[in-house]
Design a protein that fits this description.
The protein is of the alpha+beta class. The chain contains 14 helices and 14 strands. It has a domain at 3-55 and 293-441. Strands 1, 4, 7, 8, 9, 10, 11, 12, 13 and 14 form a 10-stranded mixed β-sheet that branches. The chain has a two-stranded antiparallel sheet with strand order 2-3. The protein has a two-stranded antiparallel ribbon with strand order 5-6. Mean pLDDT is 82; it is low at 70-92.
Amino acid sequence: MRTIDLFRLILDNLRRQKGRVALTALGVVIGTASIVMLVSLASGLQQSIINQFTSMGSLTTLSVQMNYGGEMMGGGGMGGGGGPVEGGSVPTQIKKITNATIREIETIPNVSNVIVRLMAETGGPLRVGKLETYPGYMGISVNDLGLLDIPMQEGTNIIKRGEAVIGADVLKNFYNPYGHPGDPPPNPPDLLNKRVPISLYKYTEDGESITRIVDVKIVGIVKEMTEYSWAMVMPMSDIESWNEWNRGKRINRNQEGYPELIVKVDNMDSVLPVADKIKAMGFMVYTQMEYVRQIQSTFTIMQIVFGGIGAIALFVAAIGIANTMTMAILERTHEIGLMKAVGATNRDVLAIFLGESACIGLVGGVLGSALGWGMSKFFDQIMGQAMSGFMYLPPEAMQDAAQTPVWLIIFAVAFATLIGLLSGLYPSIRAAMMEPVEALKYE
């Protein structure tokens, strides 16, 4: 039998029993739609949360901090590094981050930049007119903040001595200390390219307060809801001079060490191996990549569970396909005998009935994939809002909470077709093995 004749015969047979085929395919549609919708929601939520981590800080950065002694768990922490250590932990000595440490870390493969991050040991309010706020004052050892992937809302990310970038959330946090209860919050002041006074405080041994006023020019504004959106970022030399004024003496970092380094890695795949090497040097290492890996593992399990729920519905549909094909064989036994009498082989009969069952699965898979994609988009905003509130993320961070990758559509259609094919296998073999004489006698 020619292939074109085989397809025509299959389609004619399906058209003759449209109602039964439609009801049988409906089970496949429901199962396939369930798989596509549930896996799309899990995939979209996973990507949304990873994007939020990325927006809050680069996934290719490591935070390296001094180890003040005690015990450091092997393979623990957020660094994601280290293998199991006999006994569960190893004693460590105080490890200081000195200039020699920086040079050593710079030689590690895939490390692109090593940047010192320093917090001010003194502080005070930033005042603009009657308004004031209290940002975190942070010093960075590079002038180009683009090396830290700090997302800018306005202005430049290049800072020089006496200049700073300020977080958008700091601007929103200005308040009037002399206001009255119930007053509406003030509008954020426009500070871009303006000089603002900062009041620094320290206390003598006698408890006397000393104030120092420092003028800083704001050259850029960092996007809100990011790692640096609550800080004022300045050159490290400025912050170090504040700290020396606060202590009343010069600071020798080769003896005291730096509190923290930001290590930039040139690709995400190298983040955890680099973290392992720095942990082996005895330092504390923190990276968001470990959280991302845990999230990916969790959502992979979730996708498998969701897909399994839809697969159960497909297997129920498979029973319906097997029942439909069995009934079709009983009703068409005489027709099978006639086909064999005029020269149809067992292979031809097997191909006809297998083709019919596979077509039911294919049609159900295509329609179910389309329905699942539509349902995932329908529930997109609802699930996005619900999960953003549950996970304490802003609603915009959960946009496109459902994502349907191309591979999922292809897999769903192929899986539904395979289910249809396997469901019709036994009835088709039974039809192919009929004796022509017995089939022609069947009433």
